[in-house]
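Anyone up for a design puzzle?
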């Protein structure tokens, strides 16, 4: 399965975001799945609009993801909340603990 990673990006340092998303990537790979990391896949150019980045992220979810894993800080992210709403609308599986991921 391709598992999209959702979590807070805005307001955190690049190092904090990279560490959190890389941690999730590693655990998703260990579970036998392919991670979709928006921090790596979405253009992070300074000055780019938040909405442009969110739309790119939602496009990845729509076109590539088989499920979404939510980092512990997801509830502090307006974008992750929108990703959860989108997943519910599309009946896409959501996971809040790595242990919830299906075995590959």
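Challenge accepted. My sequence:
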């Amino acid at each position: 399965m391709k598992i999209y990673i959702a979590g807070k990006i805005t307001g955190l340092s690049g190092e904090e975001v990279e560490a959190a998303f890389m941690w999730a990537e590693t655990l998703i790979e260990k579970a036998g799945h392919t991670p979709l990391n928006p921090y790596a896949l979405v253009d992070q150019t300074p000055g780019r609009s938040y909405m442009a980045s969110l739309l790119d992220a939602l496009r990845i979810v729509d076109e590539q993801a088989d499920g979404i894993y939510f980092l512990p800080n997801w509830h502090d992210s307006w974008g992750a909340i929108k990703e959860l709403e989108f997943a519910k609308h599309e009946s896409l599986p959501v996971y809040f603990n790595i242990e919830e991921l299906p075995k590959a």
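A detail worth pointing out: The chain has a mean pLDDT of 95.
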